[in-house]
């Protein structure tokens, strides 16, 4: 964790990850008491949210603290660029919002996952990083187009609960179809933590749906150092074979980052990228994971999502637990 | 109450109703203590709300619990149909939202009163029933087009406070004018509870504004069994004469359920369906009730709404008390 | 304070102001304990808000109380005019909303700063005053087009912290440019409290941006009685010279109150009305104040806003402290 922010899983060392997940395991199912009494977490959502919003609020409340929720409906437009001459639509600079909120509360969470320009710009997480720069309190990434570290923590916690040890275990991260272009955040973040955990990772997607190359290369290196591996394939069948964890999710095309129509057209021929019972049967009795929300019968069939290998609700439930651990580390 | 949900007043036995209202009377004006400490109620509003939202939040907070409020602005569209191939606008299935929220909180309240199709469809309360089916925690109906049980509980509590015993007492449920087509929820639910209480009910409305026939027939039967009666008239003057309670509210036309313009046209000739002092003078010194919000000087005049027979704010205040009782029963 | 409302700084006596700010100073940085346990404050926002929303919620929570937040997205339209025949868009009368909310909570805050008609109408604060009239609990003004008393309290608290005594001290209230027409609320309210504090006030603005004349004349009188003075100038340079406090903010033109395009056109020639280091150098080492949000490099440059004379974040932080004091006075 850089400073006391939690912006990316790429910042975590293996020891920090272990500490965080060990703490999450200890607080799970227990009420660790009112350890955050008097603490306030401000949550700023610039996109809709169900799990993130509710799991953070529940986490704070159960620890004795309080959440203040702001959505883009409550707010005016905010300017993230330094030295901007603010004669446009933005009513306030992120600098001032971040510094003001730092005077009122004890931490800030920011969801800022919309597409604002070309990928080379969006991968820089300008709005989030601007909050982190100017806030004097810890800032938590609640998802950008580039990263969703809280989701990945919950995912790895869920894998550990089911597989005990992750080193050398076979994880397939599988692209699946979706009518809308989606963030690459969950994919990048779980890839990074699986690499850090030394898993044997197969990343599978159709041509044109490559993940960010810097994330990919760095994850390969990290996986190798941790006793694991990372390969990329464009064949769903080959990717699923022998997997111990099948992690399905759609993500947007970096290539067509600002041409949603083009991406939609390409995806019309990719409807077979959907997890079904046949595919699951070729795995090594794999856990089925998906970070939700999921497009049922498009990304994966009801049969597999509701099947006995599915741990999708465990992933969701673990959001609250890992976030309690995170908040305790950042705020206590 | 089916399972531990609270979806409809039609599910209540007389003994259950008495228990609930007795508890509500006991907690009214008292602070029953922090009996719901650590409990979380999630409220999902797909339409605006003032009383329901605030009365539930106050009820939870005063019992030591916590509310998490989500409105349609915070959320994406949700799919209620099972086995749907989710390639449209809905980003998540109610199944997944309900199961996820069940992992985070202790109960869910759902307001889903919009018109989504023909009456035969809307009367099935698809979205609410879907939450109730998939949630593993109690689900509370915060109003559909078909039912508004929490409002009716507060209404009956208010009648009891003023009339002591309801059996055989004369209640007139009176349609009144309104520029917009409204839900039938409050009308159906108060009709059901008045029937269960053995009141002598007169339901009065213009032709074309009949309530749901199944609700009507069942309520007639229940009223009869409880020592009361239920008659329908289309004459406002006749309906008001001798009433001990005049309960005014507009509701939409089932006949024109998907033709708001047609309904509006019909209502142009119905402006006399408005409660005023003249009408009140023909009653037996009746209580004036209305569940709010009320269109002043359209549905009822200022003089009667602000008059000494009016108990409209008592009804609103009792929302908090009956809901405390309900939450204590469902969550303790 | 009229009744127990807090609607305007014009209602405060000097003794009341001192009491409030003395209490604010005592609670600042301390946790005065859970003195508002069981109390609920309802906040109604008809415009976006960051500081007001968060500072009130933090204030209530840290005093052991609870905030219920409603925004125009949660609500339908409300009718403020008495005796209205409500056959238009407004679904509920302010009378009924105010009386209902008074049954649920212990105080109400209202932000209603939009332009709804000519200045002679908007200066009457119809929506706010309507809530104050009908609510039986204290009502707090969270900003109208005419007044923003909570901001002014925080501003005067900040001045006192830095200058100790305000009597006879030189304050320049300086209009500055902004792409949008803004409320006159903060300007009027700080003018009134500075006058009450006996400051030597220079109000500086371009021709056409006069403040409300009644506020101006009354403030002149109050300032004189308190040992201070109030002059109006149309020359920014002259106004800044020798100032001990330079309080910058844009406000809208009463003259062009309902012609935003005309105001925007006029302001195109007023871009020099911007605080920069050169201007600051002519002051008597003045504090730089601005109530936020600020248009950086339009109203004031980054250099002065981020400079060592700037107390803009102190002003924001003091919102929470003065509001704690206010809530303790109104609710304890």
- Principal-axis shape of chain A equals globular
Q: CATH superfamily membership of the largest domain in chain A, which one?
A: Aspartate/ornithine carbamoyltransferase
Oligomer class: homotrimer
What is the CATH class of the largest domain in chain A? Answer: Alpha Beta
Largest interface, with Cβ-Cβ < 8 Å?
Answer: A-B, 30 and 29 residues
- What would you call the structural class of chain A? alpha/beta
- Within the CATH hierarchy, at the fold level, what is the topology of the largest domain in chain A? Rossmann fold
Number of strands of chain A: 11
Q: What portion of residues of chain A is helical?
A: 25-40%
Adjacency order of strands in the biggest sheet of chain A: 9-8-7-10-11
Radius of gyration of chain A: 19 Å
List low-confidence stretches of chain A.
none
- Number of helices, counting only DSSP H or I runs of 4 residues or more of chain A: 13
Structural summary, described in words:
- Three copies of one chain form a homotrimer.
- In chain A, α1 packs across α13, α6 packs across α7 and α6 crosses α13.
- The first copy, chain A, contains 13 helices and eleven strands.
- In chain A, the strands form three sheets. A five-stranded parallel beta sheet of chain A has the order 9-8-7-10-11.
- Chain A folds into two domains: 153 residues, Aspartate/ornithine carbamoyltransferase (Rossmann fold, 3-Layer(aba) Sandwich), CATH 3.40.50.1370; 164 residues, Rossmann fold, CATH 3.40.50.1370.
- Chain A has 332 residues and is of the alpha/beta class.
- In chain A, 40% of the residues lie in helices and 16% in strands.
- At the A-B interface, α2 and α13 of A face β2, β4 and α3 of B.
